[in-house]
Amino acid sequence: xxxxxxxxxxxxxxxxxxxxxxxxxxxxxxxxxxxxxxxxxxxxxxxxxxxxxxxxxxxxxxxxxxxxxxxxxxxxxxxxxxxxxxxxxxxxxxxxxxxxxxxxxxxxxxxxxxxxxxxxxxxxxxxxxxxxxxxxxxxxxxxxxxxxxxxxxxxxxxxxxxxxxxxxxxxxxxxxxxxxxxxxxxxxxxxxxxxxxxxxxxxxxxxxxxxxxxxxxxxxxxxxxxxxxxxxxxxxxxxxxxxxxxxxxxxxxxxxxxxxxxxxxxxxxxxxxxxxxxxxxxxxxxxxxxxxxxxxxxxxxxxxxxxxxxxxxxxxxxxxxxxxxxxxxxxxxxxxxxxxxxxxxxxxxxxxxxxxxxxxxxxxxxxxxxxxxxxxxxxxxxxxxxxxxxxxxxxxxxxxxxxxxxxxxxxxxxxxxxxxxxxxxxxxxxxxxxxxxxxxxxxxxxxxxxxxxxxxxxxxxxxxxxxxxxxxxxxxxxxxxxxxxxxxxxxxxxxxxxxxxxxxxxxxxxxxxxxxxxxxxxxxxxxxxxxxxxxxxxxxxxxxxxxxxxxxxxxxxxxxxxxxxxxxxxxxxxxxxxxxxxxxxxxxxxxxxxxxxxxxxxxxxxxxxxxxxxxxxxxxxxxxxxxxxxxxxxxxxxxxxxxxxxxxxxxxxxxxxxxxxxxxxxxxxxxxxxxxxxxxxxxxxxxxxxxxxxxxxxxxxxxxxxxxxxxxxxxxxxxxxxxxxxxxxxxxxxxxxxx
Amino acid sequence: xxxxxxxxxxxxxxxxxxxxxxxxxxxxxxxxxxxxxxxxxxxxxxxxxxxxxxxxxxxxxxxxxxxxxxxxxxxxxxxxxxxxxxxxxxxxxxxxxxxxxxxxxxxxxxxxxxxxxxxxxxxxxxxxxxxxxxxxxxxxxxxxxxxxxxxxxxxxxxxxxxxxxxxxxxxxxxxxxxxxxxxxxxxxxxxxxxxxxxxxxxxxxxxxxxxxxxxxxxxxxxxxxxxxxxxxxxxxxxxxxxxxxxxxxxxxxxxxxxxxxxxxxxxxxxxxxxxxxxxxxxxxxxxxxxxxxxxxxxxxxxxxxxxxxxxxxxxxxxxxxxxxxxxxxxxxxxxxxxxxxxxxxxxxxxxxxxxxxxxxxxxxxxxxxxxxxxxxxxxxxxxxxxxxxx
Amino acid sequence: xxxxxxxxxxxxxxxxxxxxxxxxxxxxxxxxxxxxxxxxxxxxxxxxxxxxxxxxxxxxxxxxxxxxxxxxxxxxxxxxxxxxxxxxxxxxxxxxxxxxxxxxxxxxxxxxxxxxxxxxxxxxxxxxxxxxxxxxxxxxxxxxxxxxxxxxxxxxxxxxxxxxxxxxxxxxxxxxxxxxxxxxxxxxxxxxxxxxxxxxxxxxxxxxxxxxxxxxxxxxxxxxxxxxxxxxxxxxxxxxxxxxxxxxxxxxxxxxxxxxxxxxxxxxxxxxxxxxxxxxxxxxxxxxxxxxxxxxxxxxxxxxxxxxxxxxxxxxxxxxxxxxxx
Lengths: 739, 390, 326
Known about the structure:
With 739 residues, chain A is an alpha+beta fold.
């Protein structure tokens, strides 16, 4: 009876032994054993690896190891500090007035006409080896004007037989800034940079017009048969940036360039640490913009070329992405100082040693949380996050609410690393709405009542296992302007408990009272109709249902009925844009560690409905806007802190958001991984990490002893169980047939 | 004020169908013989009883009305224009019967019949010291199957899933069967142009991979549909009817995608049947085609319809879980075993494991599918004249 | 026969056009390019200008069926339908919306991992199902039959998702016999294939065995079998020769049509086991709402389906000569 199945099992066991060495569940090849490789996972294929386009942290995991912008964040120091990467030093802006006179750094912002950042890059930095740099005998690029025949057998960049390299130059940075304006690159930050970089908007418009001209020309030539997509695939358009002036970027010499801003913008240096400002050589772009290569999916959006410690070897986003050590890397040394306590944690053991420490980074695609977690426990991934459901297995909270590893994890030698992320998850009110919006005292009280009722302490407890900090304002911890302790609480939602030294949320009675004062006693309006508020969110996932139910449950305490309107993210955005909503849930990750990056989400001029900005609540308070304009151009001085404090108080009273919470990320690392310190701003962290491959090999062996016994038992039972069946078949066959 | 969803109509139709059968069994000879046959099968009778129980619960959960809103002194509230104000929540008879179960919620997970939560919390003792322990439940020992992540009673969620299961399993098939028989038999019997046209229709439809078709369809029609929870004034037509019901659209599109399979099976079988001697003989005697189809073909393909119905019933209930996984299933506020299994999927990797959610969904689903299969078999045995002799 | 096949192939054209029209209407009228642009451009700083720009680049700024701004032939050619759907006819799938890759190449690459899972699953599955079904039919009426059916019913009332989670948990995590998920190329892929194949086979057994059992019982109870057995033929001979052969029609309708779809892979399986096949390609596209890929997969699905139908009809004649293909 069990023949087919048992045969498969037998074959399976045999093959497992044949291919996997003595650990049958090892997902890696035998040849990788004991190698200096870092294994980790990614849960969805990256969309873009082109530094002009890429704008999400899961893409930065890859490109930040490859591309090098001029600046980076110090790996160990806190608060976050910018240090040079390829630049000689962190640029200090020079401010000019209308007559090009140099102004002192503390000159009032309205006098500043130009801000000039001069960036000098280090000499002798070489690019990774790449076919785009390969030259023939006469010094011409080897792989230009390729035809389909030339590309026989070439599927990936590593299939090209010849490669070359060259030195990093200022031109490469300038070229990339120009690429940000290229309409074909769809850079998501163009609309922001246009406001600051001199002449960038005009330059982008000119490029756009040029592109239209080229298309029109091609359309005319091809006639009715014109198919824009086919045409541009076979014959990609390369815009010539030199045809148009860009006064905001100047080349001084091969190693120096300037960026000229129209206004004072102290936050600009932070942009210089983001991959958007990475160097991209023009010959690389020209190499990739060849029809036959595009048809083979070999593009700059998939195969980055950089000067960083790693280069991309394999790009198979459906399975794995492999980065290997860049042979031409100039060598960078591990930081010699950190914040107090780093020495004790062993984070300075490698101080001054040459980075990177690992030879390869293997990212495996792992969409499902369960297999990812199990493989981490088996030692096949070196690091892991924690999902809400694996939390209890990994972490216990001590009586003081401090996170600690469970004994099970401690036995495995796993280490826990926690950090507050510079992000905020909030619930916003539509300030343009008749019911929940508006700035009268009644409306403020309505919003404050809801803010009290949505008990985020409980939310964090249930859904995040305590991995979050209830927010008092949009500013998360670690960002200038965040206030600790009593002075930091939101007095409209919390009271301060002197004994326990912690904020206490006001009771639901207080919320009910506020609601009554707002004109909704018991959640009913004057005509007695229950108050129904629509709630828009994009939580389509499996685990969303309990969260939605929680919100409904909390507001029911006030007698308010929450009508849930979950849609996919697409339609959610559409609703946000049209202003067709009352209460919504959204989040924000900081681009850089400055309060400006949070406050601008609430500035009237950024209203989503009116100006398509990022202010989804459409909040607009003239006093807040005025203070914002003052604050955004200031350095981190006590005066700035005072203004921020005023702004926070205005926000807390108006309550355009229920401030929600700031997530705390928990990372787990195996004992063989060293030099791990969470850094919410830096992305190029792989170069710091060191692993002990021998220890890992030992532990994997120890943790993954296969257990064949149950299988053998099942087989024996099946075989024995089938014996009577066989006997009775024999007997029956000898008898006669009765249907 | 009563409220009727379009899926409620499916449940009402199912109940009417059962009543019709009960009467038909008494009158007609053929069906009543079959009925006597089934009655001798104890297992089938037990199954039928369980099925009726399920359908009864589904019916209880399909009769719903909105309450009048009362003010703090218990008087009926009126709008400015004098009309009575109704609550936007349409609770079903079942919700009202199981009021305690619905309302007595805990904070988060608790094991079946437990007295304490399943998750440790920081508790402050009266003397001010803080320990980390399992806090006691608000309603200890009352949750027969424990509570889920937000503290809702799992047994109640599972019971609420019955209606969704019945509607998906029967509604879908009720919608497809007439079309499948009509088109399948016509195509197989007439061949030629009729075959070509029918094949064109169903090939075009079925050649679109069903998941993709369901996704596209649900994105259009299911998006703004009623998903359980509150009813807004825009949803309601003629004061009581809610036509735009997400579950109904799910039935329709699943019907459209599974229609073609049955149709193809019937066509294949008819192709075989029309070459049979007795059909050839009837043709030779000049019996009209329609009569042949009615008398010889349709009765002889009914067993395939039945097998498909039975096999599909469970398949459809299970397919709902998969659609939930892709994110296009029943809305989160409508109880469904699919959603429960899908949540339990993540809970299984918890340590210590949370098993009762999955267990409840499994038991309730199993309790529906198993009797349906047994009863379906019995009906088939009774209806198929050749099998009856056995 | 040959004429029939040719005719069927010619049918394919209107079917494909029908599918094309249907999908064009669904994907371009109902889900507008503006929707797609917003989804694809990401979360931060999206301006209407960026959306227009994106549509312009991808050719989504054209009208769907008729371009009234153009003259003559260009009224038809400068449309979304003409430029996006027509190239499908010569298997030019175009580029994906999300990351602008050549879909045709991606399909070629991803077909093989799908096949490496679905082919063994298909063959072993059919063999196992038929064998068990015959055995149960052999023991009809006895306790083995009853318990077999009960087992089938139990097995079929368990969600596929549960089989996968349970299998990964038991065989992968507890017994540590297989890698929990993943894939590798060439010979190294074998150890990743076994677990999904075992789970895939077991999860379809309940439905399969039950179905084939019913089919066999149908046949066994037919008059010619009685006649054959009355003539004194042995049971094995009757069951395996006559009954099996005549039961082949329902079996074939069920089986042959799915053969071409082996290339297509399984959505859920591939997503759970992280297998880089066409199934996960499709599910990713659905979740990312990449309609260029969804459209291509719809088109590919229709082609495979048509091939499957033709194969089915051919196999009918091979099994049962009484069926004529006119």
